[in-house]
């Protein structure tokens, strides 16, 4: 029998390499924007004292990082965001679960929760400041209130709208209440719950930024307000870029959760007998 | 004399003012294959749902052998859990030799790690069959499980169900619109019309194609209100 050897020629190798268009395309517009911005400032089209160049903003970031200001403020903002999200999200999840599963609980709690949900949570800032001051508790509470409702609504709807045919199958196959929950109700509700998590992450940052801008002496929001008082446009822009990056990080976390827990949704290739 | 697994005596089910079934009487014996045929809306599925205990009758008597037989339903829309793999669907997350054996019995061993969305219609129904067999039922309630399959896959599934029922001495109650399928798979065929059983005849399970065709044709005539040939 002949031995077959495959030789990879440079031509073959070249044919295998493909321009990673899909990976690069999402960054095309941001990079173009930065390049145009830099060119406009460098050529004098935009006054650098009014709008500093991206490079100057980057330099400012490096300086603030080395001085320790940036890591401290990012850490405190991340801490507030995370604790607020865990408390609000956890409470929203538990309430959604309770009301989704129990008709009695739904009758008792859903109406008041729907009423509260319709109050814009940022309008509570004066109330929170009066009651809790401008300390950590106030900011964490605001984030928690903001995050609670999207996660509550999505958990509640996901659980309450479980597939009745699958539930009937489960009951007729003798599944216990816990098995019905863990094998049918919860996995079926998970896509809707994770949609709530994604939405909640967005609200988390918005609320924190507003809270830190209005009443704080630390955090990214405080950095931006403080810089505005000194007409320090570099730091203001740096804070905006940080918000964008943290928002992107939240989005990546949400996507990561979806690809971990909803992996079955991507396995949909039908084959024939 | 063998005691029937399930006995229905003048069974009745109303939904509000609407009478879904009335005066339905029949018996299902161990190892027997019975088919319920008839037009849509005639009450076939209601009879099966009452036997399965998914709904309560509003009149008549429904009694089971003592101890009550284990029953499992196979639905037309398979009702697989899309988030569980093939083997997890069989045992609802429990693994073991019994699950492995069942997957082998329905020819799905190699697809054990796949998800239902990766399976064809026929494979999905084979998986639903394996899941139905996990609890070692004595009675399989088949609610048009082959209705959505193509002719060839349907034929293969009929053979698989008949083979498994014979090997495990399983009784079956098949609901179908297809009179030829009923004739081919059942020992007894019951025609259900306007909410009650109007006609019963012997099926042609295991018999040659010409007999199956004749039985199917006769049953069709009953359904369509025509005279049955002598």
UniProtKB/TrEMBL annotation, chain B:
Which InterPro entries does the entry link to?
AAA+_ATPase, ABC_transporter-like_ATP-bd, ABC_transporter-like_CS, ABC_transporter_ATP-bind, P-loop_NTPase
List the Pfam families.
ABC_tran
User: In the record, what terms sit under GO molecular function?
Assistant: ATP binding; ATP hydrolysis activity
Q: PROSITE patterns, alphabetically? A: ABC_TRANSPORTER_1, ABC_TRANSPORTER_2
Q: Which residues form the ABC transporter domain?
A: 6-219
What keywords appear on the UniProt entry? ATP-binding, Cell membrane, Membrane, Nucleotide-binding, Translocase, Transport
Q: What is this protein called?
A: ABC-type aliphatic sulfonate transport system, ATP-binding component
């Amino acid at each position: 029998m002949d031995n077959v050897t495959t030789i990879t020629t440079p031509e073959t190798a070249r044919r295998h390499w493909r321009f990673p268009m899909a990976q690069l395309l999402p960054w095309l517009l941001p990079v173009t924007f930065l390049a145009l911005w830099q060119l406009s400032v460098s050529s004098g089209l935009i006054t650098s004292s009014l709008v500093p160049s991206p490079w100057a903003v980057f330099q400012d970031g490096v300086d603030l990082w080395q001085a320790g200001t940036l890591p401290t403020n990012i850490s405190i903002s991340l801490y507030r965001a995370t604790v607020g999200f865990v408390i609000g999200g956890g409470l929203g999840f538990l309430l959604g679960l309770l009301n989704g599963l129990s008709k009695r609980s739904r009758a008792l709690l859903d109406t008041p929760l729907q009423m509260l949900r319709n109050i814009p949570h940022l309008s509570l800032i004066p109330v929170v400041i009066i009651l809790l001051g401008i300390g950590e508790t106030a900011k964490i509470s605001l984030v928690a209130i903001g995050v609670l409702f999207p996660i509550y609504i999505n958990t509640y709807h996901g659980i309450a709208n479980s597939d009745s045919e699958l539930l009937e199958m489960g009951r007729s196959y003798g599944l216990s209440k816990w098995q019905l929950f863990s094998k049918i109700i919860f996995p079926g509700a998970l896509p809707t719950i994770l949609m709530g998590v994604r939405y909640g992450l967005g609200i988390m940052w918005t609320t924190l930024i507003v809270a830190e801008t209005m009443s704080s002496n630390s955090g990214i929001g405080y950095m931006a307000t403080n810089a505005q008082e000194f007409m320090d446009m570099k730091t203001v822009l740096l804070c905006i870029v940080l918000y964008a990056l943290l928002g992107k990080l939240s989005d990546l976390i949400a996507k990561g959760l979806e690809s971990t827990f909803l992996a079955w949704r991507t396995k949909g290739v039908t084959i024939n007998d | 004399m063998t005691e029937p697994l399930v006995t229905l005596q003048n069974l009745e089910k109303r939904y509000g003012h609407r009478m879904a079934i009335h005066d339905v009487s029949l018996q299902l014996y161990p190892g027997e294959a019975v088919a319920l045929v008839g037009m849509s809306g005639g009450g076939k599925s209601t009879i099966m749902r009452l036997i399965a205990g998914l709904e309560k009758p509003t009149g008549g008597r429904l009694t089971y052998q003592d101890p009550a037989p284990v029953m499992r339903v196979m639905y037309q829309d398979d009702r697989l859990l899309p988030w569980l793999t093939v083997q997890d669907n069989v045992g609802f997350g429990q693994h073991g030799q019994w699950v492995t054996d069942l997957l082998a019995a329905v020819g799905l061993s190699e697809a054990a790690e796949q998800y239902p969305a990766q399976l064809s219609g026929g494979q999905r129904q084979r998986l639903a069959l394996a899941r139905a067999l996990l609890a070692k039922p004595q009675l399989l309630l088949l609610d048009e499980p082959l209705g959505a399959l193509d002719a060839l896959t349907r034929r293969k599934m009929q053979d698989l169900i008949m083979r498994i029922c014979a090997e495990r001495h399983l009784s079956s109650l098949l609901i179908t619109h297809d009179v030829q399928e009923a004739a081919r798979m059942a020992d007894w065929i019951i025609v259900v019309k306007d909410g009650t059983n109007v006609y019963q005849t012997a099926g042609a399970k295991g018999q040659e194609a010409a007999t199956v065709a004749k039985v199917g044709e006769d049953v069709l005539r009953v359904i369509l209100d025509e005279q049955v040939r002598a």
